[in-house]
Write a structure and sequence with these properties.
12 helices; 2 domains; globular; 227 residues
């Protein structure tokens, strides 16, 4: 909640600086809800960009969500009427939470995932409105404030690094990103890196699943010994 509200406030401040009413900032977070793409969208609001250019940039920036969707095909297919919203609300942060958070005993998994997604968007909209309102009342220098999104990604990555049973997937992602950056450059590295990551992790899935199961069993054994 704190992360979403703070980053949402940054987005709201930047939207307010474009001259739009604060309600527009809230409407964007309600209907677009694309995190980093919303920050890119601010440039579109203040410039003369064609629809084709906007569509291409949006597709490239959000292409990573294709891989997110592949991960949750089985989890979402039985969610009924909740499924369309879950697809819409699958942001980077929500994806990270759904991957790492364990469903409490006795709680329906579909309802649990839905509540996480819904609350995250509520936090984001709330932060956006707060930031836009502050921006309308105060004169603030917003230079560099868009870095809040990068900072949030860094926090998510750190939490995954500390909580996931094995760091092999993270290291694979890092290596693929570095290679892709060195070969394709900063502008074109994202898509090749994502394809390389998904292919390598798919190939290593049996090995990783065995390793994770072994580590979790060892952790359970140690907990029983301590008890």
């Amino acid at each position: 909640m704190i992360g979403y509200i703070v980053v949402g406030m940054a987005f709201g401040l930047l939207v307010q600086n474009t001259g739009l009413n604060f309600l527009w900032a809230g409407l964007i977070s309600l209907t677009v809800y694309a995190g980093s793409m919303q920050f890119v969208m601010i440039n579109f609001l203040s410039g003369a960009n064609g629809l084709l250019e906007i569509a291409l940039v949006t597709f490239i920036v959000n292409m990573r969500h294709m891989f997110y969707g592949l991960t949750f095909i089985n989890r979402f297919k039985n969610m009924g009427s909740k499924k369309p919203y879950m697809i819409f609300a699958l942001t980077d942060e929500t994806y990270a939470l759904l991957c790492s958070t364990k469903v409490p005993a006795g709680v329906d998994a579909g309802t649990f995932f839905f509540c996480i997604a819904l609350l995250n968007q509520i936090y984001w909209i709330s932060g956006t409105l707060i930031g836009a309102l502050f921006g309308s009342m105060l004169s603030l220098d917003t230079t560099g404030i868009e870095f809040t999104m990068t900072a949030l990604f860094a926090v998510i990555c750190t939490e995954q690094w500390l909580s996931f049973p094995t760091r092999i997937p993270a290291l694979i992602g890092l290596i693929c990103a570095v290679f892709s950056l060195s070969i394709f450059g900063a502008t074109n590295m994202l898509v090749p890196a994502m394809f390389a990551i998904i292919l390598i992790l798919t190939a290593l899935k049996p090995i990783l699943e065995t390793k994770i199961a072994t580590l979790e069993a060892e952790e359970i054994r140690q907990c029983k010994q301590q008890l």
